[in-house]
């Protein structure tokens, strides 16, 4: 599954661009930062993270699409979040605090990622104030996404949940299978079809 | 509502202690950091944040207890989170990105807080790598709390939601009015009474 990073120098531009949206780094600094990441390719349906397992990495998506989900005590699947190109995803409680994963993350299509261990993340944050700044800002954003997911779950109207979904994941609306969108919204496929229709 | 910080030097120890759990700072540095906060006292039922309003501050609780809640489109109240002594709380989307608040935060009892504006937070993070580290780590923790709140909302069993609540807020279980706990868990007061009973 692991591939040589050199193959993917082009793709590393996606990470460099994201870093440079927040901080000023030279090419030499970026190459040093990048050397702390590893590259992985996953096929559709493969797992980045499986419930109950140790979580080594945070994943930066270069391509593809994944979903994180939780299986409740009666075996029902609940989708927490999706991630697409240039999003970060992992089970953060397990990643930060060396616990086993509570959620699963699997691929909705073939997916390429850059992996960053928590050890390397802390090392880079110690070495570069700017990298610490970058990760603080990204974590702020994730906080907002999580708060919005909570607000979406608490909304009593399917229409409002659908509108929040379109706002959070504009590029996913047409791309994802309808049954996955329905599971994320907690509605039936019939209800979802009505929401997709115009003038609703 | 605003009081002189000098009155509360004793209380500022709570903040210093929290900072020192993460970073090494001298007393002089702490005093400088503290000078960027203001002190406020709120009475029970007063609001730290009201839906639709501009959000200036993040709040560090010195004493008391607050709840953040969301009112859905049919007027039903949903409790997102509580905060107690040494917790931070605000509407982070509004705070970070200069938007109007989507949630309300009000006091379940008389509450004293230290307020930090986003401008001062960014200033301190620029000036001290260590303060940036502190806020990254605290934001990581908030992420985990939010993820756990999502998992709690997705749990189909009231018992499991109750157990997560006890785990997240051990000191609140006996302190909060039962109807507030029931609203947080999304159960009736009767169901809650059964959950409180032993051997359940």
Automatic annotation (TrEMBL), chains A, B:
Coiled coil start-end: none
Positions of the Cyclic nucleotide-binding domain: 40-127
The protein's name: CRP-like cAMP-binding protein
Record organism: Sphingobacterium zeae
